Automatic annotation (TrEMBL):
Keyword Ribosomal protein: no
GO MF entries: fatty acyl-CoA hydrolase activity
Catalytic activity: a medium-chain fatty acyl-CoA + H2O = a medium-chain fatty acid + CoA + H(+); a fatty acyl-CoA + H2O = a fatty acid + CoA + H(+); a long-chain fatty acyl-CoA + H2O = a long-chain fatty acid + CoA + H(+)
The keyword Transmembrane helix is assigned to this record: no
Family annotation (PANTHER family): 1,4-DIHYDROXY-2-NAPHTHOYL-COA THIOESTERASE 1, MEDIUM_LONG-CHAIN ACYL-COA THIOESTERASE YIGI
Protein name per UniProt: Medium/long-chain acyl-CoA thioesterase YigI
UniProt xrefs under Gene3D superfamilies: Hotdog Thioesterase
Family: Belongs to the YigI thioesterase family.
Keywords carried by this UniProt record: Hydrolase
E.C. numbers: 3.1.2.20
All copies of domain Thioesterase, residue ranges: 54-129
Source species of the chain: Microvirga vignae
Amino acid sequence: MNDRAPEDPGIEERVRGSFTKQGLMETLGASIAHVSPGLVQIAMPTSPSVSQQHGFVHAGAVASIADSAAGYAALTLMPSGAGVLTVEFKINLLAPAIGSRLVARGRVVKAGRTITLAQADVFAENGGQEKLIAVLTATLMTIQGRDGVGD
C-alpha cells in the first residue's frame, strides 16, 4: 500500500477544512466519513437530484466522490502546505448505482514526492448490504507554493 508516513500532524483537520470548500461536494450532499493516513472515505446519500434518466445515481456523481476520496487519501501523506491536483483518472462502472447511500473508499497505492497513485472503490449501500459499483484509479500531483494551496 503506501510507503510514506503522514508528514502533517494536522492533516485530518486540513482535509476536513478543504473538503468544506468544495461546492460540488456540498451540492451532492457528500461528507467525509473517515480520514486516516493514506485512507479517506466519502459518503453521499442518493436522491433524485443526483440521478440520471433511469433512476440510478449519475456516473458523474459517482466519479466525483471517487476522485475526491482518492485525492484526499493522497493529501493525507503530503507535507504541510502542500496541495493535490488530479492529473488523470480512469473509472470502471461495474454496476448501476442503486441504494440509499454511496461510499467511496480512497486509498494510496504508491506515494511519491511529486506523483501519487491512488484508487477509490465505490460501494452502494442498501438494506445493510454493500455492493461494489465502481473502481477509480487516479494519478495525483503534489502542488506547493501557489495561492490558495495548503490553506
